[in-house]
Amino acid sequence: MYHLDNRKGAEGEACRFNSYAPERQKVRAKWYVDGKDAFQDIALAISLAKEEIFIADWCLHPTLYLLRGDGKEVADSRLDILLKKKASQGVRIYILLWNETSLAGLNLNTKKTKNYLKSLYPKNIYVKTHPKQYPVEWSHHQKLVVIDQSIGFLGGLDMCYGRWDDYKHNITDMNHSHSKYPGNDYQNPNYHAYYKYADKLDSFTDVIDREYSTRQAWHDIHCSVTGLAAKDCSFNFVERWNFSINGSKDSKENKNEGFLCNAQLVRSLCKWSGSPRDEQSVYAAYLHLIDNAKHYIYIENQYFIGSTSDLPKNVIPEYIARKVVEKMKAKEVFRVIIVVPSHPEGDMAASTTQQIMKYSYNTIKNGPNSMFSYIKKHVTGATDKDIENYIFFCTLRNYGFAVTEHIYVHSKMMIVDDYITIIGSANINDRSMLGTRDSEIAVVIQDHPTSVIHTKMNGRHYKSGKFAHSLRIRCWREHLGLLPSQ
């Protein structure tokens, strides 16, 4: 497919976080809160593609509408229509999907999706799935779109049903003639098996009765990067593509609104998933950012599972607890705010759902290896109330005709000190962080020194980065109901 260049930093030294990619200076980075704006920009970027499109997803539904509303523009925004049009114009389209084997116990109908996409325009649409069978425990969890190697989109959003949402997070949708969530997009996996949605290529067919069932609102974070950071996104894709066909590891700047930043791609990738070495640079980046936090840590994540002991193996919760201990002993003001779903996606009676909840509670407060227990061991006399002045966990809900439904937090994002941000596909658990399990990709975005605004931190003058600060404020305004019409 392609030959890959050397990802070493200047003068050949290893890259920060032991990543495959160096930090790129002065790239344009843009954040997206929820699917509406992200899918809108992805649709526009696809429509402007001149040479090639790379897409890697955990799950992809070709009949997903990237725009909502009325008119021909919306009708033409259906993903399969967009891709077929670009392929007919000579644009080469490469799509990598996770092959969820039957042994994995999950049916996303990837084979049907692959065959359908290839049939649209065989000359220029190429689709690969991986792995063929093993390992059955892990998945390809990256969500990545790269256009002409000049702009890359990555984060928590797969291009599949149920991901499009806006800040209103409506849980009902009765307007059939002008539906925001047509057919399969009106879904609630808490009550209906996920494969029912994946099995439908007709996006206008309702799978659940919207008169009686609420939809599950979806909160997510995505971003885009340009220039050399986009080329690093391409490198990751090409390396995985070549690996999927048993190849080797050999492999225009686009004007985009956003903020001037330095950006570095990080990932979880290993010998089974496409890298010649085991890489856990996402994990290294999280630990480094937490360890160097001075004022606050803000996290949104689908999962929060780790340990301050041997198991689970990732020690992100321990690093946060250690930071809190340091600040409590110094009597400094410091805040950790963590937003997670109120419960995992799926049947609440299922053993897997209950196990995830158990691990989450054990991570936070229950048992001898929890964050709270760690802090109490290291800060004499610390009470739960003392700790809660430093650490705050919260979930999201919305209200509608059907009274209430939780908003499913699917973000994989952390902001530290209004200055540095990590956005990607990686959850806070062993699957995503250890590098030898699920494949993941993320980007560490640091505001350029010239891209600052003057704010206050703990009552004192502070220079906040425009990207990090504006993303945090946008999330908080949405969560606190301070956006228009909320």
UniProtKB/TrEMBL annotation:
GO aspect biological process, one term: phospholipid catabolic process
Coiled-coil zones: none
Ranges where the PLD phosphodiesterase domain occurs: 136-163, 405-432
Domain of life: Eukaryota
EC numbers, comma separated: 3.1.4.4
Pfam family, one: PLDc_2
Reaction(s) catalysed by this chain's protein: a 1,2-diacyl-sn-glycero-3-phosphocholine + H2O = a 1,2-diacyl-sn-glycero-3-phosphate + choline + H(+)
Cross-referenced InterPro entries: PLD-like_dom (IPR025202), PLipase_D/transphosphatidylase (IPR001736), PLipase_D_fam (IPR015679)
Annotated keywords: Hydrolase, Lipid degradation, Lipid metabolism, Repeat
GO molecular function, one term: phospholipase D activity
Protein name, entry field: phospholipase D
Species in which this protein is naturally found: Naegleria gruberi
